[in-house]
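Work package 3, deliverable 3.1, input record:
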Amino acid sequence: MKWNAIRAALILLCQLSLIFLLQSCQTAPAPPEVEQALRQEQDLWRAGASIYAPEDYQKYRGLLATARKSFEQEELKIGYFRNYDKVKKDFTAILAEGERIQKLVEDKKASLAGEIVARKKDLQSRYETLNTLSLELSQRTLSRKQLAQADVLFRELDRFLEKGNYDEARSRLGPIESLLNQAENILRQQLERYMSQEEIARWKKMAERALEKSRSGNQLVILVSKLERKLVVYRGGEPVKSYEVGLGFNGLSDKLHAGDNATPEGEYRVIKKVSPSKFGKALLINYPNEEDIKRFNEAKKKGYLTASSRIGGLIEIHGGGKDGLTQGCVALDDPEMEELFRLIPVGTPVTIVGTTDPNNKIIAILRREQK
Amino acid sequence: MKNLMKLAVLGLVVVFLFTSCAKQPTQQIDEAKAAIAAVEAAKGNIYAKDELKKLNDDLQAALDEVNAQSKKLFKKYGKAKEMLAKVKTDAEAVKALIPARIEEAKNAALTAQNEAKAAFDEAKALLDKAPKGKGTKADIEAMKADLAGLEAQLTEVQTAIDGEDYFGAKDKALSIKDKAAAIAEQVKAAIAKVKK
């Protein structure tokens, strides 16, 4: 009886021990917040938290490391004694902090993207202005290289913006600006004179003298305005014909020497009617005149030109097409040149000016750009 | 007294055993760090960003473990050693992945470069045969100058490829391709204008 009681007690003890052991081996489930926080940390890093919120992110990582330690310590305990309450609380707080940082990063990125887009918009507007200006000029090759390169960089910038790679996008702004500055400098060198009120006043006086001649003897006079690419024939001070013209490769500059591809500015006259010429019919003018020779000699004396430089000549108003780029001549479409050739006698005064309009559209563009 | 002496000696042996087994795993630390440095040297910061970050995090966790154990009386570096060994193995695996990724990026850059060149050549060929008729001559001159600008950018693509900046090269090449295609469209429009 006694032994039976002892045996029963031992069996009961074994069963209790087994239950206890089974319970101890049972692993209490880890709070899902632990895994979520680890994923969140990766997401934050990918989102650029270390760049856009470095201090907050560092603090967050510190909190995460501490919480992980306490989680690991809890894991080391026998299942029965584990208590994840504190771990859960810590990780919940970390997740909330992570969400705050995520928002902060998104806000900073949005703000940075906004800055880049705004800056890009300014540069784009400047690019459009310079592009329009460059296409308006007779010599359309000017600054095109720089503008094409800037265009490629704009496209690169857009790609980086699309990918959310703001650092790379921002790094394109400087080179774009530099290229636009170069393009603007090239255009300004050509157009600066066209913004000078003194220069425009001088050209206006030349044009007025031509009109005065036309009025005084009911005479035919040719007035060429380079910026507007216009040739107007006046009789008795009134315009009788108007043609669009093409100029030299470097047409907006004032001709100084042979080979500069510039179209001369000054008061000339037709000295010969040439038919046929290399470019259909042609009216040869007396370039270089006295003023041109004086300017050329001064430039040589001051060392602006080499000793071997020549002043050039054979400047004509000829056919061949207004769309052509000449070596300094004024070119018209052939049918219009035929008409002009018939109309103009030898001796007709020809005045070539930069512009007489102080508010023409190119100057307006440049002024807008200058602001 | 004799027993007490025996106990003291035994105690000393136990302490010696504990301390001798609990040396900091400096060699494993150095090896893990060297393995990560090798990943970085193999351009892991470009081609295995996520993996490199994980490696650094795992290394940090292992170092934290070493640090925590070093403060204990009875130091157990077994877990830290396991962690460090895993970092080393993982780093070697990541390093092995990189050459294929570089090759992939290089191929993508070269493809983009070829596409950009093809688009450039097409625009150039179109310009060369474009009739310089009424109203187009100056436009064509402008487009030729635009292409000259692109040519300079194409050189930069090659420079980027030579410098093994394959992602940069690809982005630039694709941008050039787009611009060249835009110029080709302008040339076609100019040709159509002449034909009218």
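Chain B has two domains: 2-101, 103-195.
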